[in-house]
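Side project, low priority. Logging it here so it doesn't get lost.
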Amino acid sequence: MIRLARVRLEAEALEVTELRIFAELARGPALGPQTSLVKLFGSSIGQKVDTLGLERPLYGHEALKAVGSEYAQTVTGKYLNNRASTIFGGSDEVQKNIIAKSVLGL
């Protein structure tokens, strides 16, 4: 339960960050490393949600079913596909390099 609460807080913090970025865009300045941060944290949070989903359903009255159930097939595919999100959207390492160059001037 603590892990679920932690992931929920991370998702809410990400939402606030996205809202701040939208507010900055409305004022007109060019975006900086914020977009890399959103991508980096968003993919990480998605993976955490999927991991929790493999352990137990996050909603509904459904208990975990045996492997091979409709639920297991759906959540397992989503879990495996979201692992790839850190690669096809720009690997986490690339995003960290972008952030380091933009923020730290490395």
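Brief comment: The mean pLDDT is 77.
Revisit when time allows.
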